[in-house]
Design brief:
This protein has about 140 residues and is mostly helical. It has one domain (about 5-135). About 85% of the residues lie in helices and about 0% in strands. The chain contains 6 helices and no strands. The protein has helices at about 5-20, 25-65, 75-80, 85-90, 90-120, 120-135. Helix 1 packs across helix 2 (about 25-65), helix 1 crosses helix 6 and helix 5 (about 90-120) crosses helix 6 (about 120-135). The longest helix has about 45 residues, at about 25-65. The chain is elongated, with a radius of gyration of 25 Å. The two termini are about 20 Å apart. The model has no long low-confidence stretch (mean pLDDT about 80).
Length: about 140
């Protein structure tokens, strides 16, 4: 790494440590822990989006199967959805495919980014510092 870049990183960490009144080693340790926590958060959000996708699939199957049962009052809500203009014209499939694509793309990007931050938080802490230095 370039000597000037290392000096800028060191001066940034020193300035940040002076602002909050702690040692500079503590600042870098906290940045590493922050990246690790952010990785856990991203991974959690990733699995929440996967849960949303499964719920969406369940709702579509439920509308199509339970809504077509005309002889039972138990599934009144699903019958109303099934017989609605929204389902009749196929908008439900359009919404299902659109939301599924958005959810699955978010899932893939979160699945890549989250564990990387958990297993290598030092890299992302340095990357964040370098992004701040580049912005100055």
């Amino acid at each position: 790494m370039n000597e000037a870049v290392i000096e800028k990183i060191d001066s940034y960490i020193q300035a940040l440590a002076e602002q909050i009144g702690v040692a500079s080693e503590y600042v870098f340790t906290m940045l590493v822990k922050q990246q690790q926590l952010y990785g856990y958060l991203i991974t959690f959000i990733c699995f929440l989006t996967l849960l949303l996708f499964f719920f969406l699939c369940f709702a579509m199957i439920r509308i199509r199967t339970k809504g077509s049962l005309q002889h039972s009052d138990k599934y009144q809500v699903w019958k109303q959805l099934y017989n609605s203009q929204f389902v009749y014209e196929g908008f439900d499939w359009f919404i299902f495919i659109l939301v599924s694509i958005i959810v699955l793309v978010g899932f893939v990007f979160s699945l890549i980014s989250g564990p990387l931050r958990i297993f290598n938080p030092e890299y992302y802490a340095l990357k964040e510092i370098l992004d701040v230095i580049k912005g100055q």
